[in-house]
Structures are given as structure tokens and as C-alpha cells.
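Explain this one:

_____
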Amino acid sequence: MEESVPLDRYTFGRDQHCFGCGPNNDIGLQLRFERKGESVFSHFTLGRGYDGPPGILHGGLQAMVLDEIAGWTLVGLRGRVGLTSSMNVRYLRSMRLGEELVAEGHIEQETDTLITIKATLSQNGRVGCLARIAYMMPDCEKMKEVLQGPLPEGWERFFGGGS
């Protein structure tokens, strides 16, 4: 049996406010992640206020969670951060609010410049939503260009070192 290893929720600093994973974002999901073998997981429950139709998790939030698990799959398995370049989402069944959800990501394809993640969102052992998400893998200079300024402290390690 493979050991589950929690990923550090402060990987991006104590003051980061990402909507999906930011530990200090009061309106965010504050998702937590763990690596197990060649996959990354998040277990969570969302309640009222995250609705699409009554009692059903909003489809756009499902897609956001899949992008988040895929991004943390890069962090947890490769120690890298990518930029989402494409995302193909397929909705298979409704996901109920108030019941545990499990997001899972694993690497499907990989080159030096592009990594594709397969991500799923399941409930009660059944996949409700899945996505294939491609990430461009920027170097430090490209990421500085995207951010229009310097990288946050400690982020160089996610883009191949050097500043």
C-alpha cells in the first residue's frame, strides 16, 4: 500500500490568496492536497453557496477544482508550476453538495515545454467530471513577463532555478 504524503499548504508562501488553495482566502475553497504514488488527491466537502442548480455543485466550480488539482499535480510530482494552456472538461453526472468530493490528478503526457494532466472529480466512488488540462512550462523569465514583475520570494525553484 502506497503512503499518502500531505503537500505543504504554504508552498507558495504564507500570504498567498489563491481562490482554490490559499489558506488565508476567507472566501476561497482552501483545498488541501496529498501525493500518493503517481497521483495527487484532494478530499473536501462543499455546502450551500456553491450551487448551480439547487443542491448541485456549480459546473464552473467543478472545472476550477480540476484545474487546481492538476496544478498541484505538477507541484507534487514534478516540483514545477505551469500555466494552463488548454482544458477539455467533460461532465458525466451531477455532484451533490454536502457530500465528500475527491479530486485526483496524474500526468498523462510530458515534454520539456508541455505537460498534460488527467484530472477527475468523484463522489461516492463515481467520476462526475473529468478533464485533460495542458500546461505550458515557463522558465523564470517567461513567468516574470506573465506576472509583469519579479517572482514572489522563493518561487524561482518552480521554474528551473535562476532569476
Summary: The domain at 4-151 is CATH 3.10.129.10 (Thiol Ester Dehydrase; Chain A).
